[in-house]
Amino acid sequence: MTMNNDLPIFDGHNDALQSIYRPKNGQPRPFFERTDQGHTDLPRMLEGGYGGGFFAVFVPSGKPEEGFPGADAKSGKAAYELSLPPAIELAQAQPVTMQGVASLFRLEAESEGRIKVIRTVDELIHCLQNQVIALVLHFEGAEAIDPELDALHVFYQAGLRSLGLAWSRPNVFAHGVPFRFPHSPDTGPGLTGAGRELVKTCNRLGIMIDLAHITEKGFWDTAGITAAPLVVTHAGVHALCPSTRNLTDRQIDAVGESGGVIGINFHVGFLREDGLLKADTPLSQIVRHIDYVAQRIGIEHVALGSDFDGAIMPQELGDAAGMPKLINCLRDQGYDHDALRKVTHANWVRVLGKTWQ
Ligand SMILES: [Zn+2]
Q1: What's the 353 CA to ligand 1 centre distance in angstroms?
Q2: Are 55 and 16 in contact (CB under 8 A)?
Q3: 309: left (phi > 0), else alpha (psi -120 to 50), else beta?
């Protein structure tokens, strides 16, 4: 039993799978043993009071990674403008995606019932009540989906329940934002014709659409046609940190009006007003973004989207095991048990219930 057992954390985003199916040094990181590598493994999730979350399958760009997006404290660079990586071909994306999906199901098989890849809200609730870690199969970008959507139907049957229309690069459906600071998220075109069909088909199948990383035009195009609540799994508030990855007030309002949810990203470069990559960023910076969304559109529309294993965390938090520190910080700021229940998991349960039905 963990100290936050009555407040299981359901996390909008992590990149833990990548260190298993695309390890940087060729050596997959253990998931069932506690290590200090990366931010997430099962023991640290349990220590942190986790109930589960979205596990992302991601196809890296062909060239070496550019590193973490953020202004550089060492060079004192207060602004940055990374170029947009090129689109990735379907033939390149599908085998990598297959590896990612397989890695998730292998973890489930090896877990002896401790983790479960969930497909329905009933399964999610059952897991949260029975200390089984509930994982949602999520694609961060639609590169592995063909424009005819054959792969979407196949991956849905395999368990895909959440799809980011674009990562920060173009694809045949949508365009992602380049990492820029300070800059508006209005950086390029919206949905293509195929993108509109993808949104409608996700609605019909019951696949949640994630609007993290998409251009502002793509956000509004989706908002205009989707039947589901708007969801942004890992982002922040543009008024507090003017990164392309953060949401304008109008976007935040639209999420609220749709009954949706925003998972607040913990990446220091998307939290700080100056955009600097400083790990000594205090936890109060995460609280600042949560407060802003809660005050603007209501506590029903704010959740957590850590970006563990894909970003630079405030060192005070450290990793998944540090989540009780954030919960305590929120409690100190006046968040009562009911508010914490909503932020940690209940808002996700509500939105997934509306989306997956
Ligand atoms: Zn991301």
Answers
A1: 23
A2: yes
A3: left
The pair of three-digit structure tokens given for residue 311, joined into one six-digit string: 């970003």
3-state secondary structure of 115: strand
Q: Which DSSP symbol is given to 48?
A: T
Distance 1 CA to ligand 1 centre (A): 31
Secondary element (H or E) of residue 234: strand 231-235
Cβ-based neighbour number of residue 333 at 10 Å: 13
Q: Cα(87) to centroid of ligand 1, in Å?
A: 16
CA triple 102-66-19, angle to 5 deg:
25
End-to-end CA distance of the chain, in Å? 31
Report the separation in Å between the CA atom of 140 and the middle of ligand 1, taken as the mean of its atom positions.
7
| Residue 264 alpha carbon to ligand 1 centre in Å | 12
- pLDDT tens by residue, 40-85: 999 999 999 999 999 999 999 876 555 677 777 777 677 888 888 9
- 214 DSSP β-pair partners: 176
Distance from the alpha carbon of residue 233 to the mean position of ligand 1, in angstroms = 9
CA atoms of 353 and 357, how far apart (whole Å): 6
- Answer yes or no: are the C-beta atoms of 261 and 239 closer than 8 Å: no
CA 150, CA 61: separation in Å to the nearest integer? 23
Q: Give yes or no for residue 341 having a pLDDT over 90.
A: yes
Phi, psi of 77 (to 5 degrees): -70, 120
Cα of 184 vs its chain's centroid, Å: 20
Find the 313 Cα to ligand 1 centroid distance in Å. 14
State the average pLDDT for the chain: 95
> Separation of 98 CA from ligand 1 center, angstroms?
19
- Per residue in 245-286, pLDDT (tens digit) is 999 999 999 999 999 999 999 999 999 999 999 999 999 999
- The tokens for 228 are 């589901």
- State the average pLDDT over residues 217-225: 98
pLDDT of residue 1: 41
User: 226: CA distance to ligand 1 center in Å?
Assistant: 21
Q: What's the predicted TM-score (pTM) here?
A: 0.96
